[in-house]
């Protein structure tokens, strides 16, 4: 319903843009408002018009020659007459948060991005035009009442109160931008909603009746109590508050909102009205959640990488410090090269040709036939890429020390192929010194040999007198081996330890798993080989009884909780090892110890002593008492 104060006169809306086509489009969009649209093509023309006329709303293009939108807004705000004039920026470029802050500091009340949505532009301009018109009309009425103060004292007080309320509402709208405004009269129980508020709640503005019951239905039930409590705490001395809450649309969609609310009180201090502006912040919330998730993933990946580096440093044994340093640097360099290739593809995979060539490049020398690499271009998934990179690095390092690359005439031929997701790689050394099978596995050979586990694939060393012939069959992580498809797990047996506790070791990083296995053995436990697949770990826990378990929380995207549930049912104590923050743990397992990667030996030993000791006490307490014979 039109207010009695509203007249038929039109207000001036100033359109500032250096492109005639855009000015014409704004005039077409706003023609329905029936206001006086004033298009100008430069900041100078805009300033000249402002000096001669009153303007309700100014639409300003951010990017213009001579003076841009920010500079124009600052100049307008310097004039006392235009300190409260609504300025809306329109930008065709992506604005950063600092750009938004600069705009608001310059006096903007809102932003619109190109392409401009006509209905949104009309809604924003309509509200500010009406605010300007009402404020101007109220000011005129106030002037008239001041001249008739002697005969209309009571009416003057009422008009002043209405003016104060209008100014307060207008100030909130300018601060919050043109979102959704509402008003609730506690005395009459009546509600007022504008179209923006209806749009936020996802209701038809023409048919929706805002009542207390209908409003409650649109607010998330878990947030109703919080809203009620905050409003009840308002007082004449603290009459404003900001709320963050969720709404639930009729479709079931949940949206996040903030509300800036203000309470009005009577002479006795009792609240009589609540008014406010609601802003939909769902997109901001989603962006915050994505940023938090990204931060957790970066932290997790960094800690996993540190755990791999820790394993390389601790397990690389050499006779001299120089050999030790070269060994560690080489392995970390290979790891870094692989990470660089994976990062370039956003961790979707790495090309095997580029990976092999970069690992072998230092050994090429001037003889182009000294090292050859032949095979099709294949993209390896991240797990395959890291395993193959480590294998090629260790083979090349051993060849340079003891094999064909240790002499000038020696050669290395590397070839590969692929079938149904499985990569077949052959490494052949010729022209080098006579080689024999090593009597003791070093760290590098142990890494390569471990690739022959039933899930990852198979390896074969053929130590020929003329040089090593090595073959590697590396399976895709998602392709189960035949015995996995039958529901059984890989062999988890290790050499028996005299009286040592049998532990289930679950870790998806190969190098970290080998390090953890060695670490557990030095502490005095009997661990399984590292198991990197959730289905294999569950099968192993079903087939064999363990005294305890060490569980990596994330196995290449598979969360470990199903195995944790099984171990809990079996009353097998366990602890988590993870690169994630402890607060991300499922509430069901908050009492389970969590070790952060990289793991420290003393912390691991202490945690195992604690969980295994508590489990032994619990078992002893659960045993029935045995009476002596004859009692």
Key descriptive features of the protein:
single chain, 631 residues, alpha/beta, five-stranded parallel β-sheet, 19 helices, 21% strand, elongated, disordered N terminus
Helices, strands, pairings?
Elements: E1 12-16, H1 20-30, E2 36-40, H2 43-52, E3 57-61, H3 69-77, E4 86-91, H4 97-106, E5 110-113, H5 118-147, H6 153-176, E6 180-185, E7 191-193, H7 195-201, H8 212-218, H9 221-232, E8 240-248, E9 254-265, E10 271-280, H10 282-315, H11 321-344, E11 350-351, H12 352-360, E12 371-374, E13 379-380, H13 382-401, E14 411-419, E15 422-430, H14 443-450, E16 457-464, E17 467-474, H15 482-485, E18 502-506, H16 510-523, E19 526-527, H17 534-543, E20 548-552, E21 554-555, E22 558-559, H18 561-569, E23 574-578, E24 594-596, H19 601-622
Parallel strand pairs: 1-2, 1-3, 3-4, 4-5, 12-14, 18-19, 18-20, 20-23, 23-24
Antiparallel strand pairs: 6-7, 6-10, 8-9, 9-10, 11-13, 14-15, 15-17, 16-17, 21-22
Helix pairs in contact: 3-4, 5-6, 10-16, 11-13, 12-13, 13-14, 17-18
